[in-house]
Write a structure and sequence with these properties.
Layout (H helix, E strand, L loop, with lengths): L1 H40 L7 E5 L2 E8 L2 H12 L7 E7 L7 E7 L2 E8 L2 H9 L9 E2 L7 H12 L4 E7 L2 E8 L2 H11 L7 E8 L8 E6 L3 E8 L9 H4 L4 E2 L3 E2 L7 H11 L6 E9 L2 E8 L5 H12 L3 E6 L9 E3 L6 E5 L2 E4 L7 H14 L15 H18 L2 E8 L6 H21 L7 E5 L12 H7 L1 E8 L2
Parallel strand pairs: 2-3, 5-6, 8-9, 11-12, 11-13, 15-16, 20-21
Antiparallel strand pairs: 1-2, 4-5, 4-7, 7-8, 10-11, 10-14, 14-15, 17-18, 18-19, 20-22
């Protein structure tokens, strides 16, 4: 009996030891198989997972095409001790060609098209790139795709707006840069694409980087317009004030580079402003070489004197002035863009349009006011009309015509000087000046017989001749109205 019990215990011990050994061995084998399986899938593109049950393997997840699927299955089947490999893998669509695109607008950067991994799609979203969540997962991205997309996106940053399309290894990039500085920064980024990638680049400029150069054209009938490139921070409407016109048309754009030339431009326009009322047409060009004025003056202008005055005013600038070649037909009207005055062609001259009852009292008041507002000027010691006299003569003629032609009045034109110089010479000079005014008015259709000229020299002063201000007041033209006997 004791022998039987002993043998039984021995057998049970051997069986238990065998079972324990088997179990221990199985666990070690499963651990080895599991570790080997995890090594196989740890570097997969999309994070494939493996579940080990005993020595059976179940592999699942997304693989980057048939090539990766085949490689994973081959390596799992090569694991020592494995029994069954169950394939539950999903194969990602292969994109041929692999196309990704991006853009920069006023709202920010956008991205779309194919993306090789969900992790990258989420990364683009965290970067604030609109449209990232709608990108299509696909296989087939060329090696270096990430770097090419990063370069394309970074190259958009210096631009005002732009777009790019990456098709396999070809990048087509376009956009608009503010200045050459921003364009060059974008191009420099595109030079560091990953090896094997090529790029086609088209970047236009809002400003080519050259100094501002512009031209202001003026037409007395239609107003002013500007073309070209204006100085930094200057808009077309900013030129109206210095030029003295209500507004300026034109599509000129301001320089985007601060050349510090705006004051020079304003100075050139302000220099032209006092003369604008005497011009029919004018083009003022402001370039890096200086100022050039080409203009046509209204009939009656002393072109030589005005040209000389303009050249002196513009300094080193170029001035070319002539008389208007073609005067519109008689009674043509316009509103002068510089003065705002309504004008009419009379005897080939542009005279202001006036309307009043031409009584002797009204005629006297009107002509006195006109002579005070725009005094008729002469060259010093001469009876030659000064460069600005045409405006005063035209204004005076417009008033005197109805007084003489409609009301039948007559006028004495008196010339006066200050007390400087020889009295007899002054008397003759004053008479000659009165005659000059009389002849200029006759050219504008006023009958010579209705006007007489008288020289009073310094005999009728209205101010103190001991001061320059007083002498200036004494140098004058007067008009005395009379009714015909």
């Amino acid at each position: 009996m004791r022998n039987v019990t002993g043998w039984l215990l021995l057998v049970l011990g051997v069986l238990g030891l065998s079972y324990w050994g088997a179990q221990t061995h199985a666990k070690r084998m499963q651990q080895k198989v599991s570790a080997a399986a995890q090594d196989v899938v740890q570097d997969t593109v999309h994070g494939v997972s493996v579940v080990v049950s005993g020595r059976d393997l179940t592999v699942s997840g997304l693989v980057d095409g048939e090539k990766e699927r085949s490689l994973i299955l081959t390596r799992l089947n090569e694991i020592p001790g494995r029994r069954v490999v169950r394939d539950e893998l999903d194969v990602l669509m292969l994109a041929q060609p692999f196309v990704t695109e991006g853009a920069k607008t006023g709202q920010g950067q956008q991205i779309g098209g194919h993306v090789p991994t969900d992790a990258l799609r989420k990364l683009f979203g965290r970067r604030g790139m609109m449209g990232a969540e709608d990108m299509t997962l696909a296989a087939g991205a060329p090696e270096g795709w990430n770097g090419a997309v990063d370069s394309a996106s970074a190259a958009l940053a210096p631009l005002e707006f732009g777009a790019w399309v990456l098709e396999d290894r070809m990048l087509r990039f376009s956009g608009e840069a503010r200045t050459p500085k921003e364009r060059d920064a974008s191009v420099e980024i595109l030079q560091i694409l990953p090896e094997g990638f090529s790029v086609q680049t088209t970047i236009t400029l809002q400003d080519d980087g050259t100094p501002p150069e512009f031209a202001v054209t003026y037409n007395a009938a239609t107003g002013a317009a500007v073309t070209g490139k204006l100085p930094f921070g200057v808009a077309p409407e900013d030129l109206a004030g210095p030029l003295g016109v209500p507004g300026i048309l034109g599509d000129a754009r301001a320089s985007l580079v601060d050349f510090q030339r705006s004051q020079a431009a304003f100075d050139a326009l302000s220099t032209l402003r006092p003369w604008l009322g005497q011009l029919d047409l004018a083009t003022l060009e402001v370039t890096s070489q200086g100022v050039q004025l080409t203009a046509s003056a209204v009939p009656g202008t002393d072109v030589d004197l005005v040209s000389e005055a303009l050249r002196s005013a513009f300094g080193s600038g170029s001035v070319r002035l002539d008389l208007t070649a073609n005067v519109p037909p008689e009674n043509t009207t316009r509103t002068n863009a510089a003065t705002g005055q309504r004008e009419r062609v009379v005897e080939g001259f542009w005279l202001p349009v006036v309307s009043f009852d031409p009584t002797i009292s009204n005629c006297a008041d009107r002509t006195a006011t006109a002579l005070e507002t725009a005094q008729i000027q002469f060259l010093s010691g001469s009876s030659r009309l000064g460069p600005r006299a045409v405006t005063a003569i035209n204004g005076l003629a417009a008033i005197m015509r109805p007084c003489i032609l409609s009301a039948g009045l007559s006028a004495e034109l008196g010339g006066h000087t200050d007390s400087s110089g020889d009295l007899d010479a002054n008397m003759l000079l004053s008479l000659n000046r009165a005659e000059t005014v009389r002849n200029a008015l006759a050219e504008r259709g006023i009958p010579l017989g209705a006007m007489s000229a008288a020289g009073y020299g310094a005999s009728r002063p209205i101010a103190d001749n001991t001061t320059e201000a007083g002498r200036a007041q004494n140098r004058r033209t007067t008009i005395v109205w009379q009714t015909d006997p």
